[in-house]
């Protein structure tokens, strides 16, 4: 399954200066245990932000230009179509982990979203989720991570 996973502030912010504009270890731990053993797909800017492969996951970087330096264990793909091929090839789930441009361009192949709601407004953010990203999805399971963090799962409408 192709699953989007994102943490979003109250005002829709997800990034600032190519970084996460907050630090919540409960969310980082949740992200780690959710994605562990699966594939993680990210845009070239998010790859630059993270700066190293996430351990024990197949790391995949999406770039149209291909102008990105990657260690040999990281896979480079150039399009949404290649992502769908990859998802059909492998047994594990594929988590689309950002950033905003990747979420927007892959939105029609994402089957489920896992969203952490960050209890802050980030006034000086420069990267936001589109307002209508979860249109066509129905909210399902919801749970608390502590520290005011709430996770909600959205399933695509049939
Ligand atoms: N809050 C969260 O959960 C979260 C998660 C991840 C990232 N972020 C934040 O989001 C920000 C980065 O987001 P961003 O939108 O600027 O960048 P991004 O989505 O990480 O990367 C953009 C790049 O990805 C490539 N790309 C995007 N769509 C593609 C497609 N359909 N096919 C092929 N390549 C594609 C292009 O690379 P080329 O230019 O190389 O062609 C594009 O320039 C940072 O602040 C980061 O910290 C937040």
Tell me what you see in this structure.
With 158 residues, the protein is α/β, with parallel strands linked by helices. The chain has a single domain, classed as Dihydrofolate Reductase, subunit A (3-Layer(aba) Sandwich). 22% of the residues lie in helices and 35% in strands. The chain is built from 4 helices and 10 strands. It has an 8-stranded mixed β-sheet. It has a two-stranded antiparallel sheet with strand order 2-8. Helix 2 links the parallel strand 3 and strand 4. The two termini are 15 Å apart. The structure holds NADP nicotinamide-adenine-dinucleotide phosphate. Residues 6-7, 14-15, 18-20, 42-46, 49, 62-65, 67-68, 78-80, 97-102, 105, 127 line the site of NADP nicotinamide-adenine-dinucleotide phosphate. NADP nicotinamide-adenine-dinucleotide phosphate is lined by residues 6-7, 14-15, 18-20, 42-46, 49, 62-65, 67-68, 78-80, 97-102, 105, 127.
Q: Which stretches are low in confidence, meaning pLDDT under 50 for 5 or more residues running?
A: none
Which CATH class? Alpha Beta
Q: What is the terminal-to-terminal distance?
A: 15 Å
Number of strands: 10
* Percent range for β-strand residues: 35-45%
Gyration radius, to the nearest Å? Answer: 15 Å
Helix content: 10-25%
Strand count, sense and closure of the main sheet?
8 strands, mixed
Strand order of the largest sheet: 5-4-3-6-1-7-10-9
Which ions and ligands are bound to the chains? NADP nicotinamide-adenine-dinucleotide phosphate
SSE string, helices as H and strands as E: EEHEHEEHEHEEEE
Quaternary structure annotation: single chain
């Amino acid at each position: 399954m192709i699953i989007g996973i994102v943490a979003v502030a109250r005002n829709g912010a997800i990034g600032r200066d190519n970084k996460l504009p907050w630090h919540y270890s409960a969310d980082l731990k949740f992200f780690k245990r959710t994605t562990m053993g699966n594939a993680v797909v990210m845009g070239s800017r998010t790859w630059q932000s993270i700066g190293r492969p996430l351990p024990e996951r197949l790391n995949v970087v999406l770039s149209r230009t291909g102008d990105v330096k990657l260690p040999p264990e990281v896979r480079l793909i150039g399009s949404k179509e290649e992502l769908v091929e990859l998802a059909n090839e492998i047994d594990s789930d594929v988590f689309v982990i950002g950033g905003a441009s990747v979420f927007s361009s892959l939105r029609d192949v994402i089957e489920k979203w896992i969203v952490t709601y960050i209890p802050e407004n980030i006034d000086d953010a420069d990267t936001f989720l589109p307002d209508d990203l979860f249109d066509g999805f129905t909210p399902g399971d919801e749970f608390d991570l502590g520290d005011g963090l709430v996770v909600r799962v959205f399933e695509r409408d049939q």
